[in-house]
Amino acid sequence: MKDFVKYTLATLCGLFIAGVATIVLGILSIIGMLATDNGTSPIQPHSMLRLTLNGILQEDAPEDPFGALFGSTYPVLSQKAILTAIQAAKTDPDISGIYIEAQTLAGATPAMLQEIRESLADFKKSGKPIIAYGDHYTQGCYYICSVADKVVLNPQGQVTWCGMSSQPIFYKDLLEKVGIKMQVFKVGSYKSAVEPYIATEMSEANREQITSYLNDIWQTMLADVSRSRNLPEERLNAYADSMTTFRPAEELRKMGLVDTLCYIDGVSGLLRKATGKTTGTLPFADVKSMAATADAIPKTGDKIAVYYAYGDIVDRSTGWDDAVIDAEKTCRELKKLREDESVKAVVLRINSGGGSAYASEQIWHEVELLKAAKPVVASMGGMAASGGYYISCAADYIVAEPTTLTGSIGIFGLIPDASQLLTDKLGLHFDVVKTNRHADFGTMARPFDASEAAILQGYIRKGYGLFTQRVAEGRDIDIREVEQIAEGRVWTGRQAARIGLVDTTGNLQAAIRKAAELAKTTDYHTVASPLPAPWYEGLLDTPKEDYLNSALRETLGTYYTPFMNLAKIRHLSGIQARLPYEPNLNN
Question: Is 386 one of the catalytic residues?
Answer without folding.
Answer: yes
